Amino acid sequence: xxxxxxxxxRADSAIYATGERVECLIEFYHCGTGxxxxxxxxxxxxxxxxxxxxxxxxxDKVNELTELVGKTTLxxxxxxxxxxxxxxxxxxxxxxxxxxxxxxxxxxFNEILxxxxxxTYRGHDIKYFYKITIATQRVKSKxxxxxxxxxxxxxxxxxxxxxxxxxxxxxxxxxxxxxxLEKREISELEISWxxxxxxxxxxxxxxxxxxxKRGFVGRxxxxxxxxxxxxxxxxxxxxxxCEVRCVQFSVKLQSQEISLQTNRDQSGSELNDASxxxxxxxxxxxxxxxxxxxxxSKTSGSARNAEEEEPVGKISTFATIHQMSYAMLKTxxxxxxxxxxxxxxxxxxxxxxxxxxxxxxxxxxxxxxTPNPIEGEVKAPAEIPVETMVWNLPLNAIYAANPLQIxxxxxIHKLLIK
Length: 418
Prior knowledge:
Blueprint: E1 2-8, E2 15-17, E3 21-30, E4 40-55, E5 67-68, E6 83-87, E7 91-99, E8 104-112, E9 121-122, E10 126-137, E11 143-153, H1 162-174, H2 188-201, E12 206-212, E13 215-222, E14 226-228, E15 232-238, E16 245-259, H3 260-266, H4 270-277, H5 280-287, E17 288-292, E18 297-298, E19 314-324, E20 330-336, E21 345-346, E22 350-363, E23 370-372, E24 377-379, E25 387-394, E26 397-399, E27 413-417
Parallel strand pairs: 2-11, 5-6, 14-26
Antiparallel strand pairs: 1-3, 1-27, 3-8, 4-6, 4-7, 4-10, 9-10, 10-11, 12-13, 12-17, 13-15, 15-20, 16-19, 16-22, 17-18, 21-22, 22-25, 23-24
């Protein structure tokens, strides 16, 4: 028997970004004992990176855009369910390998993830996932496969990389230089990482005036529009000088899976379908508004016309916070962004967006209750007439973090050939 083991070189995090190099160690071990002198023989072995897509959409296979680099007979025997949309050129590990009992042979495999490939995503109607397929075969036997899954994060491609190169040259001029050393070229992935750091670190506070049909509720301040996974969305709410008091509120971090295929096929009918999926948006159209004071643009469904409203898509909630704010004039909002989510991305079939979903419980009763002169306390009212309003605030984007900052220890994947 021969045991095949596969383990990534990066042991602390089995997560990679588009454009990074995936490195894997593949070990072939003869499990026989010393008493058994039979030599195991493998005809060949190869390794290849595949990206699969599994979807419920009706896709025309003829017009479908694929990036098959090296299509071989190995694609016909892959066991993963779904369509292969990206396949790198297979790399031969060996030919005619002979192993004695207890002998081990280790091979090194590396491959660069395509820059324009989709990220790992498991949505409602579509899924993208990556696997390293290790195939081997004995003489006159069937092909044996070992699939090693990996997680891929999207890194946006910079349209004008010359701007980032100028920044790097400025930093190099300030440091001591050696005329005998060649200048190191900056890769496209490094330029993208520098640009991503600048985008997510940029502060651009925006103020939103929240009101309903009964008057002013409060003012919401979002300190920056773009975030990375693992960060906290920090904002503030100001209820001073309000006409309607907010009793309590909740904030949810939600993803929107928007089908681009459905938009192309159904054109204008997608708006009605999206409104029937999420009933909360109908409530926001009837009750809540928010106006961006800096750019003078409407930001909620209540301020748009029905024909101009953007599609909502399938909604998923990943984080929720809840606060009581009846006696508060100012409070902070901190919404964590989990590390396991998929950042914002767009393909030919689907677009993933992120938003903050607010639910405000309001009342027109502005006093806090009846004061008690004997005990010096305020007696809260027994009943408060309340109304609920919702508001959806779209985020500019949620980007990927550095894979080395996400702790996800790689496992050893095994295959036993008898």
